[in-house]
Amino acid sequence: MHTDLVAALDIGGTKIAGALVDGDGTILVRAQRPTPAQEDGDTVMRAVEEVLEELTASPLWGRAHAVGIGSAGPVDASAGTVSPVNVPGWRDYPLVDRVRATTGNLPVELIGDGVAITAAEHWQGAARGHDNALCMVVSTGVGGGLVLGGRLHPGPTGNAGHIGHISVELDGDPCPCGARGCVERIASGPNVARRALENGWRPGPDGDTSAAAVAAAARAGDPVAVASFERAAQALAAGIAATATLVEIDIAVIGGGVGKAGDVLFAPLRRFLADYATLSFVQRLAVTPAQMGTDAGLVGAAAAALASGAGVTAAGV
Fold first, then answer.
1. Which of 67, 289, 297, 310 has its CA 20 to 30 A from that of 257?
2. Cα separation, 115 vs 122, whole angstroms
């Protein structure tokens, strides 16, 4: 059904991206604005409206029959609201109603950004052909989403699969979420870098203290950098194994900035997974890097809209 188009929004703390996407997942029109993350809620919404106005000005807009939104969370799809941690002006913000008002009352489907990336990876990326998958984003935070029985499983509020806040260390460091020893508190990029610095790693002459710089040092053999990635890998392995044991997934896909570290992350991750995923039904669990790149949020938001917007199914999403 190539005449089918949906609008997609990918809303994060840095940028608000929008697109018109066809039933094959091809992005036909794009628009983007920086997120005024520290401004009041209506100012943030104005940036969303500007993106939508740019899309509605396209001659293709008339073919769009639904809007998909992947937003930084937490989101509440049942209420149509969002409360992104890194956008303080939005707390229980009625995003779905506001987007509907801007788009002439098109149906709107809201999911969390981790779920959106999962939809994209299942439709066109590393989880394609897998009926039961966990997809993770490991970057500034750690998020994720699930595909179960061949379908995206966002859960009632759109947050299912949020693996970053599984506790893998009972008496671990307090996490900003309020719990202790969360996967995110150990495996996110800033925490990988923090641990390396606390243990004596020093950046090069450029002063770069990002997780990418720690990964480069680990590749060069720096033992403190290697150890920080090993610790992140162990936390990810424990979380992935717990998820696999709970719902029987057969593949875990890892994207985000930390996911780009390559063997520095994936080699210890696969080793630790063998220690944690020990039952017969999880022993064959594959772990693989994500494939969708920076457009994953938009493509996933479009997939959710295609799957629900008008009874159209996007390649079994």
1. 67
2. 10
Q: What angle do CA 182, 187, 190 make, to 5 degrees?
A: 110
> What residues contact 153, with CB distance under 8 A and at least 6 apart?
145, 146, 147, 160, 161
Q: What domains, with CATH codes, occur in the chain?
A: 5-112+294-308 (3.30.420.40), 126-291 (3.30.420.40)
Whether the bond into 107 is cis, omega within 30 of 0 = no
- Tens digit of pLDDT for each residue in 99-138? 999 999 999 999 999 999 999 999 999 999 999 999 999 9
139: which 2 tokens? 């970057």
pTM listed for this prediction: 0.91
> Is residue 74 classed as helix, strand or coil in its secondary structure?
coil
Partners of 7 in beta bridges = 20, 67
For 302, residues 6+ apart whose C-beta sits below 8 A from its C-beta are 6, 8, 19, 21, 25, 68, 314
